[in-house]
Write a structure and sequence with these properties.
The complex is a heterotrimer of chains A (901), B (170) and C (324). With 901 residues, chain A is an alpha/beta fold. Chain A is built from 25 helices and 35 strands. The longest helix of chain A is centred in the middle third of the chain and has 16 residues. Classes of the chains: A alpha/beta (901), B alpha+beta (170), C mainly alpha (324).
């Protein structure tokens, strides 16, 4: 640690920090704009001026920008220096000259970094009496609202969008005080990280359009720490609620997982919670065959009657439901009747992933670990579409190669512009082997477009090159062998090599190949990491909960008497015809938050709480169990799925359903299954109190308490008291230094914007005070060794007249819940069949022409999209996640007019 | 002892002084224009609602009796609903002070008693008047930078015409 | 007169006397509030009926229709008894007041003065029992204060009258008035007059000596828990008490019904009325003393003064040739 002195007080910082970072880390308030902990310093805004003294005798000193000043041992600074303070005040006065008079009609108002900094410097009165410059705004699509008048020209947006996230379509135009941040023309921002502009922009130039549609000020919303449910990475989010409606999703900093950024699917995919297709009341099928609303007691009686009717009761769990809900179902039906609610193909892949990670032989990296990798191989996984936040981390991993050469010429890593200029195109090696091009190709050292079988063969070959003990691949073409060898050398040469694959690769062999590479690296004494991406928020948790069975289709082998489906649309996971027949032969109980084809076939539908209305635990792809809490308090009959199941089990007289609190069911889960023994440590118990207080879930300035419900009844309702979480339902309670898993919103005195997170971090940009939330269930152990998989597939051979159909993931639309959100629907392209131009010519179809192919028992009509990179004989299916259960598979393709044989 | 007697005497003398009581309602008291009575929502000189639902009145309210929801139409912000629970209101006037658009104003009318408490919950249609209230001139959107119907970018007070970002001229 | 006529006349006398007392006490509440208003430069209750005089009726109706509630934690029997004692004792004491030689219920009682003192002594029970039965710490404190205050001041009040009795040579109130035909006893017994009046205020626990109630510190003291008509009885008791002390002062010191020109009952009424108004002026003007100040005033000032008064009166009576 380096010691430095500010205004006579001694503080300490890490040696590679800049002064601004160090001051903020020491808890000092120093205004800034252009610096961002994840983006580094450029010294553009001149806002963080402080006085630096050469030594103790020096009383004059000189003004320096804190963000551009390294912290040297014993360095002396003054933040309070009158001249420095005056400079900061005049800088903000300049920045404010053109700022429009529209805070009341600005979505950023009340959580605006510019407002905070203006207050901090004490600039309270505008002296400028001349005209202000104005800009025209652009339509930037369904996510982002643009109001350029407010811009103070800090360049954070383009630095994030272009330098950090690799976007190309947002840039800066014009010059001097005319600078304009936008696209070359109106249009949707292409990057799947555009939502971060909302938090990166220090003022209201980029605001959340979906939030604006049901806007509330930051201080008026209840917050809850939550976990994103739209992919398997488990990014931490803050969910805001007011008047029973989910208002928005914000990033919740977790130093080990998502850091400062979210993808747009996670940020804007919340619409399903407020959607009209939510199930709010229980429904039961009447004698005439139609479903009718019933009250809670009657629903429970019916459920108990169905359970008591005898016969085999099958439970189908869900990869998007919490561990608690899945465990409750498993306890209700018994583990021999519990089936994971995934397709048999996906289930097999998940089981394989669970097996590889569960063995404890390889390190499953957190997103932070991905960011630190210095060589990476993407094996069959289109990460930017399947798990965008991990792809963003991978982009940083590649870029961080520039730090080492810069350090040689004494450029600190935070010196962003200098590092990027000096390092130029120096990159850590990234190899990508996928069927179709990915959005990481621009930074890849080498890309291979191949069918999944060939990708697997490449992976096996890489493993064999690393460790001769690994099974060799016979008959590998020379160019592929050379590539494998190059990849192996790069991985071997790296300190922290990383292999990435996942369910989206589609074939078990690809994942096995990735595991072989990780095992081989381990065999050579390298500490490699293996990221195996899973598609849904609790896919891995479900795989660990039911490791015996790959999917639910086996449940129908012998017809069950009753099927209980937990938060799952089975018709997205199996052939509809077969499923229809199977479900027709049994009685069906569905617990879900939204209508789906399954709910319409059910004898009893129970309204389950969505992630915004109940608490629970999810296991992310790295095996991190994380707790989420509800911002929306219970409404009517909507209840936690585990409560429905537990009560039904109790009513039906089944054993082992005796939990009635969140802590109770988590304790039962932990004691029932050893792999979940650590889950109770993911978050504090309900009994957690600070100075006898619950944690307040509403900011202390929450307004309208005595009016918001007055239209229904002028008498204020008594606030509910949660039995499941340590949060109070109101602004009453403690807010301050608290366990990071319980941070309901970020605020600190003088810091109303999201940047208040500075005050909760043990080290700026590092871990949170009290440790990053979540508990890792699958830690690699040194003594365990992973055996090699030997099932090497044969080389891919195109079949005449047939194509190998593979899933091409899309960031928007593939995930079931977020696809219900209206803003996301606008970004969803229509489903397409992707072929390379030679294959397209073979069929004789032009781009956009409708093609027909038989898939999953039905004939699909899809528009043709020509993708030159795709290997011959491979057909990509994009935007059809509901057909993923049938992929990969061989299909015949004809023009829509012709018949399909 | 003497002081007690003097007190008695002075108190006795008050028998012969005039009453200060105003015999409301036969005799109406004088209420200054800035008296803090019933709250209204005013309109700008163009007849549009002044309230831009910025929520500052709600957060300033010590009784938390104001609640509203923002909605938007062609760039202008409006309250979708605007509710004051007068059974909680303490007529402190903080809302009026907080209002950046002079929309919310207190008036010299305090005669709003009800037999049913629910009737003290006023919605936007009960609050909105058709005039400008105490500030006849002010129009927020003439000052702010947002483009609204009838006022494009650069047409507000103290604004220059929008920048042509493709121009190379300084 | 036959025996039955005498009984009817006696009963009529009692009933009319009681009715008069009740109505006057009720009107007094209105008079007090109007007068307090005037002392404070405001009109007081002026809405119900002419000059607000029907306020009395409105208040009465309100009290009657209020829930007659006995707190579950109270000693119910004693709780009900206490206000009754308050009213009965002062009314019985009123019976011996001779407004004129002819007007009065039993004006000619030969131990009238002793009967007054006895009744006044009994009235302590109302406050003490009310405070005890309420089973509430503020009420109990009020009751204890009442006991101390009223028992103490009873002593000086009794002693202050010894001078009058010595001068008049009788306990009969009619005789005492008659003996003031030439000179009111306020002149020779000025000290006695002062002590008796102060003692009277303390006995009726009127302001400024209302420590048993002490709204600001005990929240209405011994009658905190009372509501409805039981509270009304305390109220009526207090106002009849004011009338009683005023009437007694008139009878004992201010020459009763004697006065020029006007008929005797008017003189009695005028003197009593002015004393009642003075009670109200005291309430409007003076702050409540502290408890220890009250007790100190009694034992350290009033007691020596009364003893001195008795001594001087006796000495003068022995030394000077007098009418007695």
């Amino acid at each position: 640690m380096t010691k430095f002195i500010v205004d006579g007080e001694e503080y300490s910082a890490k040696p590679d920090e800049n002064l601004l970072q160090a001051c903020l880390g020491a808890g000092l308030d120093l205004p800034y704009f252009c610096w961002h902990p994840a983006l580094g310093s450029v010294g553009a805004c001149r806002q963080c001026a402080v006085r630096q003294y050469a030594n103790e005798e020096d009383k004059t000193g000189k003004l320096v920008m804190a963000c551009m000043t390294p912290v040297a041992e014993g360095a002396r600074f003054s933040v309070a220096d009158p001249e420095a303070a005056a400079l900061r005040a005049s800088v903000i006065e300049w920045l404010m000259i053109n700022h429009p008079h529209d805070c009341p009609v600005c979505e950023e108002g009340g959580e605006c970094h510019l407002q905070d900094m203006t207050m901090m410097t004490g600039h309270t009165t505008r002296r400028y009496r001349f005209t202000k410059r104005t800009h025209r705004n652009q339509d930037l699509g369904p996510f982002i609202k643009h109001e350029m008048n407010r811009c103070i020209g800090c360049y954070r947006c383009t630095r994030f969008y272009r330098d950090y996230a690799g976007g190309r379509d947002l840039d800066v135009f014009a010059a001097h005080d005319h600078v304009y941040f936008g696209r070359h023309a109106d249009g949707t921002l292409e990057s799947e990280f555009s939502g971060n502009l909302v938090e990166v922009c220090p003022t209201g130039v980029f605001t959340d359009k979906t939030f604006s549609a049901h806007y509330a000020r930051k201080w008026d919303m209840r917050g809850a720490p939550s976990v994103c449910t739209h992919c398997g990475l488990g990014c931490n989010t803050t969910v805001n609620e007011r008047a029973g409606k989910l208002r928005r999703i914000l990033n919740r900093y977790n130093g080990a997982v998502n850091g400062y950024f979210l993808c747009d699917r996670g940020r804007f995919g919340y619409g399903f919670v407020n959607a009209p297709e939510r199930i709010r009341t229980p429904r039961a099928r009447r004698a005439d065959g139609a479903q009718a609303d019933v009250n809670r007691a009657e629903a429970m009686a019916r459920f108990a009657a169905l359970l008591g009717a005898g016969g085999r009761v099958v439970g189908i769990g869900s990869p998007r439901a919490s561990l608690e809900a899945n465990f409750a179902l498993r306890a209700l039906v018994g583990h021999e009747n519990f089936y994971p609610g995934v397709s048999t193909r996906e289930g097999a892949l998940l089981r394989l992933i669970g097996e590889i990670l569960g063995a404890g032989a390889v390190h499953a990296p957190s997103i932070r670990d991905v960011e630190r990798a210095d060589a990476a191989l993407l094996l069959g996984s289109d990460l930017p579409n399947a798990a965008p936040r991990a792809a963003l981390a991978l982009r940083q991993a590649v870029r961080e190669a520039g730090f080492a050469p810069s350090a040689k010429v004494e450029i600190a890593p935070w010196h962003d512009a200098a590092v990027r200029t000096y390092a130029g195109d120096v990159r850590n090696p990234l190899f990508i082997a996928t069927p179709a091009p990915t959005r990481l190709d621009d930074i890849a050292l080498d890309t291979l477009r191949a069918a999944p079988d060939d990708i697997a063969r490449l992976g096996f070959a890489v493993a064999a090159c690393i460790d001769p003990a690994a099974p060799a691949v016979a008959g590998l073409p020379a160019d592929l062998a050379a590539r494998a060898s190059a990849i192996a050398q790069a991985l071997l040469g790296a300190k922290r090599p990383l292999v990435v694959s996942g369910v989206e690769a589609g074939e078990e062999s690809v994942i096995q190949a990735a595991a072989n590479i990780a095992a081989a690296l381990r065999g050579r004494g390298k500490s490699g990491a293996l990221l195996l991406n899973v598609p849904e928020c609790n896919s891995l948790g479900l795989a660990l909960l039911a490791p015996e069975r790959p999917g639910f289709e086996a449940a129908f082998a012998e017809p069950p008497a009753l099927v209980i489906v937990l938060e799952n649309d089975l018709f997205r996971r199996a052939e509809s015809l077969a499923l229809d027949a199977a479900l027709a032969a049994t009685r069906l109980v569905v617990l879900d938050h939204s209508e789906s084809p399954a709910t319409h076939r059910a004898a009893l539908v129970l309204p389950a709480a969505s992630f915004a209305e109940c608490g629970g635990t999810l296991v992310s792809a790295e095996g991190r169990a994380q707790r989420f809490y509800p911002p929306i308090l219970a409404q009517g009959d909507v209840r936690e799925a585990w409560r429905w199941l537990g009560e039904a089990g109790h009513a039906a007289g089944r054993d082992g359903c005796g939990w009635d609190t969140q802590d109770g069911i988590v304790a039962a889960l932990a004691s029932a299954l050893p792999c979940f023994a650590a889950v109770p440590r993911a978050a504090p118990l309900e009994t957690f109190r600070i100075a006898g207080n619950r944690i307040s879930s509403e900011p202390h300035r929450f307004s309208g308490r005595t009016a918001m419900h007055a239209a229904q009844n002028v008498r204020e309702p008594k606030p509910p008291v949660s039995a499941d979480s340590p949060f109070s339902a109101t602004m009453e309670g403690y807010y301050g230094k608290m366990p990071p898993a319980l941070l309901p919103f970020t605020w600190a005195p003088g810091w109303n914007s999201a940047q208040a997170i500075n005050k909760f971090q043990a080290e700026i940009g590092g871990a949170l005070k009290g440790g990053d939330p979540g508990v890792r269930l699958l830690e690699a152990q040194a003594e365990v060794a992973l055996g090699y998989y030997t099932n090497i597939p044969a080389p891919f051979a195109p079949r005449p007249g047939m194509w190998r159909a593979v899933m091409l993931p899309r960031v928007f639309g593939d995930e079931e819940q977020s696809a219900r959100a209206a803003p996301l629907r606008e970004r969803m392209a229509p489903p397409a069949l992707v072929l390379n131009e030679e294959d397209a010519a073979l069929i004789g179809a032009a781009s956009g022409e409708m093609l027909a192919c038989a898939l999953g028992g039905e004939i699909l009509h899809l528009a043709l999209e020509i993708q030159p990179g795709l290997p011959r004989g491979v057909a990509g299916v994009a935007g059809l996640a509901a057909s993923a259960h049938a992929l990969p598979g061989w299909v015949r393709i004809t023009t829509a007019g012709a018949g399909v044989s | 002892m003497l002081s007690s007697l003097r007190t008695l005497w002075y108190t006795f003398l008050h028998l012969f002084q005039r009453n200060v009581t105003v015999q409301y309602p036969e005799q109406m008291p004088y209420l200054a224009p800035r008296y803090r009575g019933r709250i209204v929502l005013t309109r700008d000189p163009d007849g549009e609602e002044r309230c831009v639902s910025c929520n500052l009145c709600a957060v300033a309210c010590p009784a938390d009796c104001i609640s509203l929801q923002k909605s938007e139409s062609e760039g202008r912000w409006y309250p979708e609903f605007f509710r004051i629970n007068f059974s909680r209101c303490i007529f402190c006037g903080f809302c009026e002070e907080a209002c950046p658009t002079y929309a919310i104003q207190l008036t010299p009318d305090f005669e709003m008693s009800e037999y049913v408490r629910q009737n003290l919950v006023y919605e936007k249609e009960d609050l909105l008047i058709s005039g400008t209230g105490k500030y006849p001139e002010y129009n927020f959107y003439r000052v702010s930078g947002l483009a609204v119907p009838g006022k494009d970018k650069g047409e507000a007070e103290h604004e220059r015409a929008p920048i042509d970002i493709r121009s190379l001229l300084p | 007169m036959s025996q039955s006529h005498a009984i009817v006349a006696g009963l009529l006398n009692v009933v009319l006397g009681l009715a008069f007392l009740m109505i006057t006490a009720a009107l007094l509440t209105w008079v007090e509030r109007r007068l307090l208003g005037f002392f404070q430069d405001r009109p007081g209750p002026n809405r119900v009926g002419p000059f607000g005089v029907l306020q009395v009726a409105a208040d009465g109706i309100k009290l009657l229709f209020k829930q007659d509630w006995i707190p579950p934690f109270a000693d119910a029997g004693v709780f009900v008894l206490a206000p009754a004692i308050s009213m009965i004792t002062v009314m019985l004491a009123m019976a011996i007041i001779p407004a004129t030689p002819l007007i009065g219920i039993i004006g000619d009682l030969n131990v009238g003065l002793l009967f007054f003192l006895a009744m006044s002594g009994l009235s302590v029970y109302s406050a003490v029992l009310a405070g005890w039965a309420s089973n509430n710490k503020y009420s109990l404190l009020g009751g204890m204060r009442a006991a101390a205050q009223m028992v103490s001041y009873e002593v000086f009040m009794g002693l202050s009258l010894v001078g009058v009795v010595m001068l008049a040579g009788s306990f009969n109130l009619t005789d005492i008035v008659r003996s003031q035909r030439h000179m009111w006893y306020v002149v020779p017994q000025f000290l006695g007059f002062i002590v008796f009046f102060l003692g009277g205020i303390a006995e009726t626990h009127r302001l400024p000596f209302d420590l048993p109630e002490g709204e600001s510190e005990l929240g209405a003291g011994f009658h905190t828990e009372y509501s409805g008509m039981k509270f009304g009885m305390f109220f009526v008791g207090e106002y009849i008490g004011i009338m009683l002390i005023s009437a007694m002062t008139t009878v004992l010191f201010l020459g009763g019904w004697y006065g020029p020109v006007l008929p005797p009952f008017m003189w009695f009424g005028i003197k009593t009325g002015l004393l009642i108004c003075f009670f109200i002026l005291l309430r409007a003007a003076l702050p409540r003393p502290r408890y220890d100040q009250l007790m100190a005033l009694g034992w350290k000032l009033l007691l020596p003064l009364t003893l001195l008064n008795i001594l001087v009166t006796g000495a003068l009576m022995l030394g000077l040739p007098g009418p007695a």
